[in-house]
From TrEMBL, chain A:
It comes from the Archaea. One of its GO terms (biological process) is transmembrane transport. This is Peptide ABC transporter ATP-binding protein. It comes from Haloferax profundi. GO terms for molecular function: ATP binding; ATP hydrolysis activity. Residues 20-267 form the ABC transporter domain.
Amino acid sequence: MSTTSTEEEKTSHESGETLLEVNDLKTYYEDGGLLSSNPVKAVDGVSFSIERGETLGLVGESGCGKSTLGRTLMRLEEATAGEVKLDGTDITTLSGADLKQFRNDVQMVFQDPDSSLNERMTVGEIIREPLDVHDWKTPKERRQRVRELLETVGLQEEHYYRYPHQFSGGQRQRIGIARALALEPEFIILDEPVSALDVSVQAKILNLLEDLQNEFGLTYLFIAHDLAVVKHICDRVAVMYLGNIMEIGPADEMFESPANPYTHALLSSIPEPNPTAERDRITLRGTPPSPRDPPAGCPFSTRCPVKIRPEQYRTLDDDLWERIEVFREVLRERSRAEPSLSDRVRDLLGRETHQAGMDETLTELFGGLDVPADVMDHLREAADYAENDDEDAARTYLREEFGSICDRERPDQLGVGDRGRLSLCHRHDEEYEEPATVFETLVQ
Amino acid sequence: MVLLGVELGAILQVVGAIAGVVVNLLPGDPGAAAVSSLQESLKGIPTLVSRDFIPNQGYWDGSQWVGTFLGLSPAAAWAVRVTVVYAYAFAVLGWLWNGYNRYRRYYRRVDWTPRDDVVNRFRGHTWGQFGLIITITFVVMAVFAPALGPTTMEENILQPYDYEVSYWDDESQSVQTVLVGEANLGSGSQGAGDENVAPMTYDDFGRFHPFGTATNGKDLFTQVVFGARISLTIATVAMGIAGIIGLSLAMLTAYYKGLADLAIVLASDSIQALPVIMVLILMLVIFQNTWVRELYDGAVLIILIFSLVYWPFIWRSIRGPAFQVSEQDWIDAAKSFGQTPGQVMRKHMAPYVFSYMLIYASLSLGGIIISVAGLSYLGLGITAPTPEWGRLIADGQQYVASPSWHISLLPGVLITLVVTGLNAFGDGIRDAIDPQADTGDEAAATGGGA
Ligand code: SF4
C-alpha cells in the first residue's frame, strides 16, 4: 500500500483525547404529514463520546435509531436537540464554510454498495467527486490521488475508467471506502458496511478497515445490527434500543459479562460458536414499541424479562407474571392498531366488537394458571375497559396496578465495573438485584 | 414571414458544415461545386443543397428543356434533387454513427458504459428503428424544406405576382411568360376534371407538381414541406420549454420534497384539470388581435401556450422516477461530502430522469403536431399564407371525394405517418432504456390532443 509521509505521521495518534462528544442528542421526525403532532423519536436523548483513534460500535435491532444517529452526526438529518462536539465545536449548528470544513473531516461509508455509487459515473469520477467539491489541489493531482486511493483499498489503477456495474459487491464497497478516504477525514461513520456482503467478503472488508485505521489513524463509528461483527473490530460498544443507548462500554468486558438486560438478550441471540458452552437463549416477547409512543419509564420495560416487580407481586408465580406482561402487550398492540374494516362494520351494526375478543384473550392467557382472586379482579377490570374500546384506560389501570419503577421512571445511566461502563437500568441501583443474578435464577 | 426557428438555424449550421466536409471527401466535381455553394450557404443555409446546382424550374422551348439540371425534365430534375438531399442527410448521419462506433471501439478510455447497453438494445428494436427513420425523414423534410420544394415559398406562395414563369405555349408554338400569380389562377385544383392538377403531373404552364396543386393553384408539396417545418418547430420548442420546466421542477420537488412538492402538485393538478384544446382555443381567441398573435404567424403564442399546458404532464410522468432516484444512497453520499444541491440534482439525479422525459417527449410531440394541425384546421392556428398541414386539410376537405382528393389526403396521411413514427421511436427508447418497463400508459395516454 502506498502512503504519503504526512499520512504516516498521523498514525501516531494520542489516545485518550476525545474527538467526538455527544450530549443528550435527540432527533425527532414528523413524517406523518402535516397533521400528526406525534413525532417519531428516532434518537431520544443519547450521550457518549469517542476518543481519537478508537472504534466505537453502535449496535441494535433495525429501527432502533442507530442509522438515524449516524446520519445526524453526519448532518444528513437535523438534530432536534442536544449537541455534537467534534474537536470541541458543536457541529449541529454549523453552516456555510464551517459546514463545508466539517464535511472535509467526517465521512461516511454506506450500507448498500449497490445504492451508494452513482452507476452513471466511472469509478474514477466517483472517488474524485469529493476532491472536486473541495477544490483539492489541481485536477492532475486529483487524478493521481484517485489512483493511489484505488490501490490503497486494494483495487487497481485501471479500474479508474470502469463503471460500478462491472464490480462485485465487495469491490464496490472498496470504492465507497476509497471515496470516504479521499479527503483524508479524521472520523468515518461506517453504516453497516459489511451487512450487505457475502460472509467470505465481510472478513476481507473488515480487515481492510482495520488496516486503514492503523495506517491513517482514523476514528470509526461502526454501526451494525449484530454483535458478532462488532466484536472483532470495536474497542468499545454502545447498544441501542428505541432511541436510547442501553449500555456502553469496553467491547471485551461487555461480551464477557453483559450488564444491561437488553444486552443480555441481544448477546444470547448470537449463535454460539461452541455448542457446549451454556448460555441460554433469551427470546424476547413481542416487538419493540412504536418510537412515536415510547414507554414512559425504561425504554425496555415492555419486553424486559427481568423487569422489577412491585413489592406485592415479587412472590407471584413467574409464569403468571409473564402472562400479565403479555396481556399488557396485547392491549398495547390493540391501541396501536387501527380498527379493522370488519370491526367498523360490526360497530355500525351495533354488534359487539372487542368483547368476545377480550374474554377469549383472558381465557387463553390465564386459563390454565392458578390466578389469585385479587389479581384476576384487576385483570377483569382492565378487560372491561378494553371491552368499551378504551384500551388507554385499561393500560393505565394495569400500569398503576402492576407497574413498577421500570414503568414509571426513566433509569439513569449507571456505572458498572471500573472501566467506565454505563448501563441504563434501575437494577444497577443498590436497592435491586443485578440483572445478571436475576437472569441466572430465570434460566434455572 | 416564414418561420425560421433559431434552433433550426443552429442545427443547420452544424449539418451544413459537416456536409461540406463529407462532400470534400468525395472524389470528383460535385464536391467542388458543393463546397463553393457551402461558402455562400453560410448566409442562406437552407438553400444549400443546391436549388441552383440542380435546378428544376425550366421550360420547354419546342425541342428541349431549358434551364433544368442537365436538360432533364423538371420532374426528373426535382427527383434528383430530392434524392441528393436525402442521400446527403443519411450519409451525414451514417458518418456520425460510424464515427461514434469507432470512437467507442478505439478511442474511448472507458470500454463499457451503461449507455452502451441502451444503444445496443435500440439496435435490436425494429419498431423503434422504423420510428427513427420516419422521424429523421420528417426532420430532414423540415430542415431542407427550401431545397425540397419544386418551387420556392417566395415565388409561388408569398409573392406570386413579383415573379414570372416561362412556358411553351402550344397554340402559338412559342415560349411565353406569365406572372406566377396568374399561372396559379389557371392551375388550381377545384375538383372538376379540367380544374385539377393531380399529384406527379404538370400544369398548363409546364410546372411540375409532385403532390398536385392546392385549390388556389399553389404547389402543394412546397406547402407540405414548409408546413413540416412549422409543425416541427412548434412541437420541439414547446416540448423543449415544457421539458426544461418539468425537469427542473421534478428535480426540486424530489430533492426538497414536502411543501415544494405539495405546491407543485396543486399547480400541476389545476393545469391538468383544464381541457387542453379548450384552453388553446380560448387563448388564441383572446389574443386574436394582439401583437403576440402576430409573432411568427402565431407560432410563438402557440408555443407558449403548449409549454404552459404540457409541463405538468412531463413533471407528472417523471416525478416518480425522480423520487426514486432521490432515495438512493449516492445522493446522501454526495450531500455528506458537501456537494451543492444544484450539482446533486444535475449529476446524481437528472441523468436518471432524463431518459424517462425523452420517452414522454417523443410520445407527446405527435400530440402537439396533431393539436397544431387541429387548430389550423379550425382556422385558429398558424395564419395564412404560411402553410400549415391542418389548414391544407381544411382547404381540401370539400374535394375529398373529387379528383382533387390529394389536397386533404396527402397532408393527412403524412400527419398520421409522422405521429406513428414518433410514437414508435418513443417506444423504442423506452424499451431500450428499461427493458422490463411494464407500461408507458401514463405517457401514451396523452399522445392525442386534437
Ligand atoms: S430498568 Fe427495568 S425494565 Fe429497564 S432494563 Fe432495567 S430491569 Fe429491565
